[in-house]
Design a protein that fits this description.
Blueprint (H helix, E strand, L loop, with lengths): L2 E7 L7 H10 L6 E5 L18 H12 L2 E5 L9 H10 L13 E7 L6 H13 L11 E3 L13 H22 L2
Parallel strand pairs: 1-2, 1-3, 3-4, 4-5
The structure holds ligand FNR.
GO molecular function, one term: oxidoreductase activity
Protein name: NADPH-dependent FMN reductase
Cofactor: FMN
């Protein structure tokens, strides 16, 4: 059977390195894995007053997360944390209390930055949030990707310099999701 991975990209930027990374990673997955990018740019700002009547776009997001076999977070680092747009989406899908869409979904966390430490601090913050939401995350290998010339090849795949490393990352992520799906 097909396994679906819900992809959450923490950047709304048109030419986002992280969106390109998400697309390139999908090419490294086996054919029974399908990657679905979830929209987060049309969500309202989270307001707890709306918990009793969540907007249709929020219900859509929660439905997509619940339907998925795994999650893939591909995020930049903004000011040493995760971007507000990603936290906003997570807050929406975690509510109302007791009706989180996240519980038990296995997740991979990865990100690319033009900075030298490649989203390490943002990923650490995200792992803390996900631990609270009962989302098990792939611990190793960690992947802090430096967005520099040659990261992607001409076809939008991972460039030669990082391909072996990121194939190894994807293989571990795939095994992690399969293990959870069979439980
Ligand atoms: C950044 N950037 C950044 N990079 C980093 O490594 N650590 C950081 O704390 C920050 N902080 C930060 C804040 C804000 C508001 C912006 C707009 C940018 C730079 C960031 O890595 C770069 O813009 C990436 O290209 C963003 O990812 P996308 O949009 O290409 O996916």
């Amino acid at each position: 059977a097909q396994l679906t991975i819900a992809v959450l990209v923490g950047s709304l930027r048109k030419d986002s390195f992280n969106r390109q990374l998400a697309n390139a990673l999908a090419k490294l997955a086996p054919p029974d894995f399908a990657f679905q990018h979830l929209r987060i740019d049309d969500l309202p700002l989270y307001n707890q007053d709306d918990d009793a009547h969540q907007a249709d776009v929020v219900l859509r997001l929660k439905h997509e997360i619940r339907d998925a076999d795994g999650l893939l977070f591909v995020t930049p680092e903004y000011n040493r944390s995760i971007p507000g747009v990603l936290k906003n989406a997570i807050d929406h899908a975690s509510r109302p209390y007791g009706e989180s869409a996240f519980a038990g979904k296995p997740a991979g966390v990865i990100g690319a930055s033009i900075g030298a430490i490649g989203t390490a601090v943002a990923q650490q913050h995200l792992r803390g949030v996900l631990a609270y939401l009962d989302v098990p995350t792939l611990g190793q290998p960690e992947a802090f990707i430096h967005a520099k010339e040659g990261l992607f090849d001409a076809d939008g795949g991972i460039g030669a310099g990082s391909r072996e490393f990121l194939q190894g990352w994807m293989d571990r992520f795939v095994a992690f999701v399969r293990r959870h799906a069979s439980e």
